Amino acid sequence: MDQFPQLANGGWLAVVFLALMGISMLLYVVLDGYDLGVGILLRRADDAQKDVMISSIGPFWDANETWLVLGIGILLVAFPMAHGVILGALYLPVALMLLGLILRGVAFDFRVKARAQHKPLWNWAFYGGSLTASFSQGVMLGLYITGFENSWPHIIFAIITGACLCAGYSLLGASWLIMKTTDELQQRAVRWAYGSFWFTVAGIIAISVVTPLVSPRIFAKWFSLPNIFLLMPIPVATAALFFIIFRTLKRLPTRLMDNNEYGAWVPFASTVAIFILAFYGLAYSLFPFLVVDKIDIWQAASAPESLKIILVGAAIVLPTILGYTIYAYRVFWGKARELTYY
């Protein structure tokens, strides 16, 4: 309380809504990240495998995007000042992301109903929409980390971040397919995961290096004593998880040839854990600012009276979405089957 006197007189509500928004965005990145990754990988499969890949995300992908709507909605109603600044600075990549999400949504429905000669076009549309949405999100992340600077080095960093996020989503998607598929497609998914692995490592390293450099305040939070020792478990755990993924991907092909799926879930679980650690590190670095060193959560927050009313709605909506998500994954757990529509 002494360090953050703003917590008094209803200021704690801003922290609560920041946590709710953070949880929503993290769940979106993990859940929609793997199905965007499956979309990015779609062009590498043959026609029959494409149907199985779509089937593996069919019951989930649309609901996964609900978390994005919830996160942006909380930003709008709880932090209207920051909402205007952030989305105003990210207007172009946000527009491209929405275009990509719309394109993949249309392609998902039309690809199965299209005539044979038109189906490849919709497959490419689903791939293109997934790639556009993923790359745009990475560019948004890169620009956000650097405080929306428009110099060429910052723009180049944002583009690199976009490419690396595509690789991270591809790693998530390939790891998901390792769990959800069998036979040749499963073997291919292992190779796809390995191909995305090093670009994901590069992306995590790049973000970890640049984030402390954009602000002396963030640098001090990470590298002052005793913080540097208290935070050391984050990079150490991340490196350990990358090693586990690498070792598992090396061993899986032999196991799968013997119909032994021991450890097939490890790459996906480990990648999710890496995304969680990266998100935690970024949140720790930025707190309490929503715009790096410019707008903090209390400056951007709505009036406490308004936040109390909004909190009642959030207390209803968030558990409902979470319960539905858990139920859907419970019902449709298991290996994906060939895609069929009745």
Task: Characterise the protein shown here.
With 342 residues, the protein is an all-alpha fold. The protein has a single domain, classed as Formate dehydrogenase/DMSO reductase fold (Up-down Bundle), CATH 1.20.1630. It contains 15 helices and two strands. It has a two-stranded antiparallel sheet with strand order 1-2. Helix 1 (12-41) packs antiparallel against helix 13 (266-286). The N and C termini lie far apart (59 Å). The relative contact order is 0.15.
> What is the number of helices?
15
Q: Biggest sheet, in brief?
A: 2 strands, antiparallel
Question: Percentage of helical residues?
Answer: over 70%
Task: Give Rg in angstroms.
Answer: 21 Å
What's the SSE pattern?
A: HHHHHHHHHHHHHEEHH
